[in-house]
Design brief:
Mean pLDDT: 79
Low-confidence stretches: 1-16, 49-53, 202-207
Number of domains: 2
Number of helices: 1
CATH topology of the largest domain: lipopolysaccharide transport protein A fold
Number of strands: 13
Strand order of the largest sheet: 4-5-8-9-7-6
CATH architecture of the largest domain: Sandwich
Largest sheet: 6 strands, antiparallel, barrel
Radius of gyration: 32 Å
Shape: globular
Order of helices and strands: EEHEEEEEEEEEEE
Structural class: alpha+beta
């Protein structure tokens, strides 16, 4: 007697000796599984392709200078070693190798400079975020140091929610949070954490 086994499919007991109907059904499921497998592989390839494209800049350039004008007068000049432009829901330009920004007064003279290790300029919000070793110096030789700063082109203000250090000719101010006009001539620190008077330690006479 030939040995047989049985299995269940959709709660129906079926003989291991397949009928033509069973063979047709199995061929259908094998074909369906193969189609799903190929479809999943294609979908993964598409996702990887889209992800790769989104991670690559559509434009790259080196040694660029950008001028921002108002009534045909240059007000701001941005210099960067490298610029990479990206598209998407929120297009932006990244400057990964350092940036220098010069703000000009009405006499076309440099009133303030801003330098940082890296920056990102967002097109929709018209803002630029500076990261790492951020330094701002104004015409009064006052200096701001922080690790993150935002320049809003629309409001013409610079701000930070991070720790800041402001050095003036006679004192050093430490604080958390900062806002100023882009010329860094009218500013306020949201939370002052310490102040050091510099004159106290300078020009001491010998007895």
């Amino acid at each position: 007697m030939a040995k047989t086994t049985s299995f269940r499919f959709n709660n129906q007991k079926m003989s291991s000796m397949p009928t033509n109907k069973d063979l047709t059904l199995w061929r259908f499921f094998i074909a369906l599984f193969g189609w799903l497998l190929v479809s999943c592989e294609n979908d993964i390839e598409k996702v990887n392709l889209v992800t790769t494209k989104q991670n690559l800049p559509i434009e790259s350039a080196s040694g660029l200078t950008i001028h921002y004008s108002d009534s045909a007068v240059v007000r701001v000049k941005v210099k960067a070693k490298t610029m990479n432009r990206y598209t998407g829901d929120d297009p932006y330009t990244e400057m990964p190798d350092g940036i220098r920004v010069e703000f000009f007064d009405k006499f076309k003279k440099t009133s303030t400079t801003l330098t940082a290790s890296r920056a990102i300029k967002k097109e929709r919000s018209q803002t630029m975020e500076a990261f790492g070793n951020v330094e701002v110096v104004n015409v009064k030789n006052e200096k701001l140091n922080t690790e993150h700063l935002v320049w809003n082109e629309m409001t013409k203000k610079i701000s930070s929610n991070e720790f800041v250090k402001i050095t003036t000719p006679d004192k050093i101010i430490y604080g958390k949070g900062f806002e100023s006009n882009q010329d860094f001539t009218n500013y306020r620190i949201f939370k002052i954490t310490g102040t050091i008077n510099i004159n106290r330690y300078e020009n001491t006479s010998n007895p």
